[in-house]
Amino acid sequence: MTDHERLVALLAERSARTGSFTLASGRQSSLYIDARLTTMSPDGLALIGRLGLAALRGTGWAVTAVGGLTLGADPISYAISLTSADAKQPVRAFTVRKEAKAHGTGKLIEGPFETSDTVAVIEDVITTGGSALRAIDAVRSAGARVAGVLALVDREEGGREAIEGAGLTVVSLVQAREILAAMQH
Prior knowledge:
Strand order of the largest sheet: 5-4-3-6-7-8
CATH class: Alpha Beta
Largest sheet: 6 strands, mixed
Oligomer: single chain
Strand content: 25-35%
Number of domains: 1
C-alpha cells in the first residue's frame, strides 16, 4: 500500500461514519468525518506529515509556515513541521485562535509566526470553506502572504470552490469519495 492508500484506509476505519449528522457548518450530511481520530494518532501523524510536506513541495508555493484554525488544523500543521525538521528549508507551524486572547498579548495567531511568512493555510476537513477563510483573513490581517490551502479531506461540497473564489488554490490529500469507497470494502 502507498502512503496515500494507508491514509485513506485510516480515515475510513477511524474517522468516518455514515448516518445522519449535523456538521459544524450547520449542513446535514450522511457522512461524518472526525479527522482528529486519525490526525492525533502516531501512524496518522507520520503519514500526514510525509504526505502533507510532499504535497506542499509539489505546489511550488515555497511556504515558510503552515497553520490554520484551531483545533482541526493543529495536528496536521505540527506533523508537517516536524517532518520538515531535517529539510534544507524547514517549515514552522502556527495556530489561529477562534478569538484573540483577552489576556497577555491578545494574539490571534500563536507560535513562531512572522509577518514576512509565506503561508499554507491548513484545514482538516473542508465542507463550506468557512474555517479556512477565517484563518486566511487572520493571516492576511497579521501581514503575511497566503500561498494556498492544504486540506486533509475535501468533502467535495463546495468549500474548495468558495476558497478558490477568494483567489486561492486548494490542494487536498484525500477526497470524501475515496473514504466512502474504502468504507465499502
